[in-house]
């Protein structure tokens, strides 16, 4: 392992800067910045605000001209800025266990509970923490559309109670695909068809909920327009991902991580399409030039588990410093409009439901693991990096089964513990030791073959 010699703003040592990140992601940062700025000003501009958790349903909100707060994104926003700690402590002080989903604990603890402290003058409104709290608009409506994760479904119920059950709430159930029928295939078969219809009915009912709480008729033509941008952006993204089968890989998992917001909760506009066109063009040029995301790529890894939002840059540099390119991952490559061809713009709802059901955690383990193995073959993966997110059981429950299958295909694997938004669970020394051991194992295998 290479020595660390760079310190971040908090004086913590991080690995030597070596990763070659995509330049176009800076354009994407501008889109994200403008989203938050518009959101923080939503009430001043007369917009109603919906808080939601779960799958990527903002096109329904955008088409109806309401602003939206994505709970997970808000917690990741705070964690990425390292101002999440007090919020999590506040959540614990209200009785929310430290092992509870740290997305939920952060959102509830800071954006809701500490609001009173800000009003009472206990928090400096000019501090990073105070600015974050004071800017978040309170909800006029709550929508839950959480696939698979029971914690996510209860999260909105707790927010509903914290607002004294006075904010109207609507639930969209996105069910599991067990794959038990004879005609079952991955995202295909009669079970899939039935559940697409089931989710579609609920989505149409959700538009009635939005209309009732805004006093405006739902604009279906506008939804089709929004989805035209989303669909094109998703197609460009998948085409760009496919270019990363090249060796060296022109982009890494960490490049895709910082573009998740754009296919998860950013507005569907031509600006979004333009961003993914630029990103794809940069990746294509790198392929032509033989330029890699890791300059001296020797190993290709698959990242499984939720992202540790406190450590995105840190982890990117750690793997690059060891000539390892994390090429793909379950979170980036198996979610977020992975099936754009299913969306018929004349009636986008069934295709949207199809994509919501495509959440990898919604499929029975054999199908999900089969898709992971297929991706690993496609991207020529040498080893699996299993991030055991301490408070996200939905992503970690199946990880030993995933590794069992990976090892049958000759791939090495390591497990390291961390979390999505609670930095205290991450142990750098543990990852260093296990990464070093996996690389030594890969080198030994190669030496035996040579």
From TrEMBL:
Keywords: Iron, Iron-sulfur, Metal-binding. Coiled coil: none annotated. This is 2-hydroxyglutaryl-CoA dehydratase. The keyword Ligase does not apply. GO terms for molecular function: iron-sulfur cluster binding; metal ion binding. Signal peptide: none annotated. It holds the Pfam family HGD-D. Belongs to the FldB/FldC dehydratase alpha/beta subunit family. Transmembrane segments: none annotated.
């Amino acid at each position: 392992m290479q020595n660390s010699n760079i310190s971040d703003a908090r004086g913590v040592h991080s690995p030597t800067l070596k990763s070659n990140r995509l330049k176009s992601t800076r354009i994407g940062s501008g889109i994200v910045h403008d989203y938050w700025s518009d959101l923080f000003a939503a009430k001043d501009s007369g917009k109603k605000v919906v808080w939601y958790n779960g799958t990527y349903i903002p096109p329904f909100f955008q088409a109806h001209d309401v602003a939206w707060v994505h709970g997970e994104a808000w917690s990741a926003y705070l964690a990425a800025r390292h101002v999440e700690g007090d919020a999590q402590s506040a959540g614990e002080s209200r009785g929310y266990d430290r092992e509870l989903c740290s997305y939920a604990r952060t959102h509830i603890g800071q954006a809701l509970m500490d609001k009173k402290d800000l009003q009472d003058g206990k928090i400096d409104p000019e501090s990073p923490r105070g600015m974050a709290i004071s800017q978040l608009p309170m909800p006029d409506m709550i929508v839950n559309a959480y696939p698979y994760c029971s914690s996510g479904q209860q999260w909105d119920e707790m927010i509903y109670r914290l607002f004294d059950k006075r904010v109207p709430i609507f639930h969209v159930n996105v069910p599991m695909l067990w794959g038990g029928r004879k005609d079952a295939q991955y995202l295909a078969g009669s079970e899939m068809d039935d559940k697409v219809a089931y989710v579609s009915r609920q989505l149409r009912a959700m538009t009635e909920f939005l209309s009732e709480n805004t006093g405006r008729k739902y604009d279906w033509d506008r939804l089709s327009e929004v989805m035209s941008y989303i669909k094109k952006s998703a197609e460009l993204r998948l085409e760009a991902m496919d270019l990363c089968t090249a060796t060296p890989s022109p982009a890494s998992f960490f490049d895709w991580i910082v573009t998740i917001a754009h296919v998860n909760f950013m507005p569907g506009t031509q600006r979004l399409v333009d961003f993914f066109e630029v990103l794809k063009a940069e990746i294509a040029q790198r392929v032509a030039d033989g330029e890699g995301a890791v300059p001296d790529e020797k190993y290709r890894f698959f990242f499984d588990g939720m992202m540790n939002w406190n450590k995105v840059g840190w982890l990117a540099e750690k793997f690059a410093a060891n000539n390892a390119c994390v090429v793909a991952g379950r979170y980036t490559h198996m979610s977020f409009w992975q099936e754009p061809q299913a969306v018929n713009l004349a009636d986008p709802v069934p295709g949207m439901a199809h994509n919501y059901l495509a959440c990898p955690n919604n499929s029975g383990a054999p199908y999900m693991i089969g898709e992971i193995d297929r991706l690993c073959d496609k991207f020529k993966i040498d080893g699996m990096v299993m991030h055991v997110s301490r408070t996200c059981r939905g992503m970690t429950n199946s990880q030993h089964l995933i590794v069992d299958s990976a090892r049958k295909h000759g791939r090495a694997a390591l497990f390291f513990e961390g979390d999505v938004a609670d930095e205290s669970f991450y142990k750098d020394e543990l990852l260093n030791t296990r990464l070093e051991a996996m690389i030594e194992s890969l080198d030994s295998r190669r030496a035996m073959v040579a």
